[in-house]
Amino acid sequence: MKATAPREPATSPATPGPHGAPPAFDVEAVRAQIPALHQEVHGKPLVYLDSAATSLKPRCVIDAVERVYARDCANVHRGVHALSERATAAFEGARHKVRRLLGAADSREVVFTRGTTEAINLVAWSFLRPRLRAGDEVLVTELEHHANIVPWQLVCAEVGARVVPAPIDDRGVLDVAALGRLLGPRTKLVALAHTSNALGTVNPVAEVAALARAAGVPVLVDGAQAVPHGPVDVQALGCDFFAFSAHKVYGPTGVGVLWGKLAHLEAMGPWQGGGDMIRTVSFEGSTWNDPPHRFEAGTPNIAGVIGLGAAIDWLLGLDLAGARAHEQALLARATDALSRVPGLRIVGTAPGKASVVGFVLEGVHPHDLATILDHEGVAVRAGHHCAQPVMRRFGVPATARASFALYNTLDEVDALLRAIERARALFA
Ligand code: C6P
């Protein structure tokens, strides 16, 4: 496995596999590059199983952010001095890196936002709102994060339109046939998660996009939980918009991306007004800059965007196929072991899941469980995961959720199981 590690000590190369097979994914070499992994919590080694909430950051990302403030600290697109030119080059360089990460055709299709949430709100107000009439519908699914429900509700409320959920089954699998039946002349947009943060379900996005395309309906994909477990190719998916957050893909918080087809972005009016999004301003009226700058009013999160660029370089420098196989091995071990725990129910059992296991333990509230696990050094998230309709669908108020990243180990899965056994013993 190759990875750039500017400050970390060299680690031993991956062990060759048996019979000349490719070497196993070298998780220890990756872990050596993630400073936050190497700490104790409540006197126990940290076992970080909350990467769906936010991933831990490699040293090269931390360094890239620090470099902005320590050396290249300037505003972008505004100065002709050396610092500003350096900052602008790194900022726009990150846009090209995102284009490459997503397989997009053109860097002008990459808009920097505060995160997935802001990217979806941008589409809601700039793309959908002007096209929406009373009686229209936005088709989502039952497994969406609130970020892919509430923005649509807000714009729908303005005109008397409504949000319609396509059903999922008891495993958390989307009923594509039912979604197809709900697609109709009133549907103005299909908006669905690529991967569910609460269940781990990976939706058949390309299939849904083909259905929507046949009906002439644009598609937005919430890719927040998909990009960390990529690869993602927005052109192959056949969607119109794709949103993700840097902080879930080893980058900084407070920055994200909206990818949109250039024709859509060019046809969209601005969302927020301010510096950088205009071509001309006068008291008689103003004209707009071209995409993507039209949608990036004001000074952006410069260090965050450059940090995202560093995260993409880091990720694309890894053995990604090996990383995916490793993450699947973690998920398989956790799923298998958790299903054997008496009184434990896994919520979300779709085939082909990504790195998330949500569960409830009989007689123990998920928040209590998460607190006990924390005292064992094991970080999981408990709650509704900003997906209350999913919780309702499965008849639970909350779940505990273990989520894995490529830096987790099989031993950490075992540590989770030991901690759960301790919790069971406490509540026995
Ligand atoms: N899910 C989780 O613990 P932001 O907050 O804008 O970076 O991402 C919002 C978001 C949108 N869609 C999906 C599928 C998500 O998982 C998230 C964020 C985190 O599951 C925090 S609630």
Key words describing this protein structure:
Aspartate Aminotransferase, domain 1, disordered N terminus, alpha/beta, 2 domains, single chain, Aspartate Aminotransferase, domain 2, globular, seven-stranded mixed beta sheet, 14 helices, binds ligand C6P, 428 residues
Secondary structure layout:
Elements: H1 27-31, E1 40-41, E2 44-45, E3 47-48, H2 59-70, H3 82-102, E4 110-113, H4 116-128, E5 137-141, H5 150-159, E6 162-166, H6 176-182, E7 187-193, H7 205-214, E8 219-222, H8 234-237, E9 241-245, E10 256-260, H9 262-267, E11 278-282, E12 285-288, H10 302-316, H11 320-339, E13 344-347, E14 356-361, H12 366-375, E15 378-379, E16 381-383, H13 388-393, E17 399-403, H14 410-427
Parallel strand pairs: 3-15, 5-6, 5-7, 7-8, 8-9
Antiparallel strand pairs: 1-2, 4-10, 9-10, 11-12, 13-14, 14-17, 16-17
Bound molecules: ligand C6P.
Task: Please give a structural write-up.
The protein is α/β, with parallel strands linked by helices. It folds into 2 domains: 25-54 and 319-426, Aspartate Aminotransferase, domain 1 (Alpha-Beta Complex); 63-315, Type I PLP-dependent aspartate aminotransferase-like (Major domain) (Aspartate Aminotransferase, domain 2, 3-Layer(aba) Sandwich). Helix content is 37%, strand content 16%. The chain contains 14 helices and 17 strands. It has helices at residues 27-31, 59-70, 82-102, 116-128, 150-159, 176-182, 205-214, 234-237, 262-267, 302-316, 320-339, 366-375, 388-393, 410-427; strands at residues 40-41, 44-45, 47-48, 110-113, 137-141, 162-166, 187-193, 219-222, 241-245, 256-260, 278-282, 285-288, 344-347, 356-361, 378-379, 381-383, 399-403. Strands 4-10-9-8-7-5-6 form a 7-stranded mixed β-sheet, with helices on both faces. Strands 13-14-17-16 form a 4-stranded antiparallel β-sheet, covered by helices on one side. It is globular and about 75 Å long. Ligand C6P binds next to helix 4.
